[in-house]
Write a structure and sequence with these properties.
Blueprint (H helix, E strand, L loop, with lengths): L19 H11 L9 H5 L6 H12 L16 H21 L6 H8 L9 H8 L2 H15 L15 H14 L9 H11 L15 H14 L5 H29 L3 H32 L4 H27 L18
């Protein structure tokens, strides 16, 4: 197997447009075309979970992370783009609140997260029971859209917390960022995983292949993180991630071993089995508990964050498993097969 090196951390190319709204946003970023930003009526006609709106929102959010090749940093705070982003967010958030309107309270929602589905459904169950190497590669490529920045969206909430919630949030995130060791950062471990699987490990390298279901999962983190009013929802989202990660990671690690995916591919998920098992208790007792002790009025928002995260993760899992069950790619553009030189 030829050794593949992870690409250096540079700005990604802007992904291709998927409709008129995302095309207008992309043209504004790159300074091409008429640069007329989409109007409210155009955005209102977009499906809130559809390709066009979700990509347009991804383009806006990425300005707050690494940006894109050829896009000036000054556009991060461009008033016109911020206005469009607000309309896109309004459409997305309204749909989420409508679809999550019948949600349980925080305690019931947190308890439900600890219960594994009796039918063994979901992506990690599929991968463990019958996943082949091509399924694992697709899964890694999909998740790379947000896993290569791992916990970055969560850090937006830190200045908005206090006391126990803030202290323990930072303790958990310290682990996510490798406890001070760059080579142990979870985003770096994920890039190493992709290298083991013969994938493009560059930041944003797989965005064009990822559909709206994945972009919505990724965009939700930024939506919650970038708005102080949604700090409770971000904490709810964080609780879902840390609670559901260990059992899913254990199954995927087993699938990686069975497929001979490579030591780095196994290591990433084994790391999450161990670390997140501890994090789950800390997040539930100290981050969620501390936030609600300080601000009990945020309980409905924490519950909303849990419900919205589960809704979008279930949509993504349904899309992926349905495609794989039909023996079809879950990506917009299937990955090229591994050649003998690469594997």
């Amino acid at each position: 197997m030829t050794l593949l090196l992870a690409a250096p951390a540079t700005e990604p190319e802007a992904p291709e447009a998927r409709g008129e709204v995302s095309r207008a946003v992309r043209d504004r970023l790159l300074g091409s075309g008429p640069a007329c930003l989409p109007r409210g009526g155009e955005i209102a006609r977009c499906s809130p979970y559809g390709e066009d709106l979700q990509l347009a929102l991804h383009l806006c959010y990425e300005l707050h992370y690494r940006g894109f090749v050829g896009v000036p940093d000054t556009l991060e705070w461009d008033p016109g783009l911020l206005g469009v982003r607000a309309l896109l967010e309004h459409r997305f958030e309204n749909a989420l609140r409508h679809d999550c309107r019948h949600r349980p309270d925080v305690d019931e929602a947190l308890t439900a997260l600890l219960v594994e589905p009796g039918d063994g459904s979901g992506v990690s169950h599929f991968l463990m029971s019958r996943g082949e190497l091509w399924h694992l590669r697709e899964y890694a490529a999909l998740r790379s859209v947000h896993q290569l920045r791992e916990a970055d969206p969560h850090l937006w909430v830190v200045p908005r917390l206090r006391g126990r919630a803030k202290a323990v949030m930072m303790a958990v995130e310290y682990d996510e960022y490798g406890a001070g060791r760059a080579e142990r950062m979870h985003s770096r471990l994920y890039a190493d995983l992709m290298v083991d699987l013969g994938l493009d490990a560059s930041y944003g390298g797989c965005t064009d292949a990822a559909g709206a279901e994945l972009l919505a999962v990724s965009n939700l983190m930024s939506l919650f993180g970038l708005h102080r009013r949604l700090r409770g929802a971000l904490v709810g989202h964080f609780a879902v991630v840390e609670t559901t990660s260990p059992p899913a990671a254990s199954r995927i690690a087993a699938a990686m071993r069975r497929a001979g995916a490579g030591p780095a591919a196994e290591r990433y998920f084994e790391e999450h089995v161990e670390a997140d098992a501890v994090h789950e208790q800390l997040v539930r007792r100290e981050v969620v508990g501390g936030l609600l002790e300080d601000e009990p009025a945020l309980a409905p928002e924490v519950a909303f964050g849990i419900a919205a995260t589960c809704l979008l993760e279930d949509r993504l899992a349904g899309h992926v498993v349905n495609a794989w069950t039909r023996d079809e790619s879950a990506l917009r553009t299937p990955l090229p097969p591994l050649s003998g030189d690469e594997w």
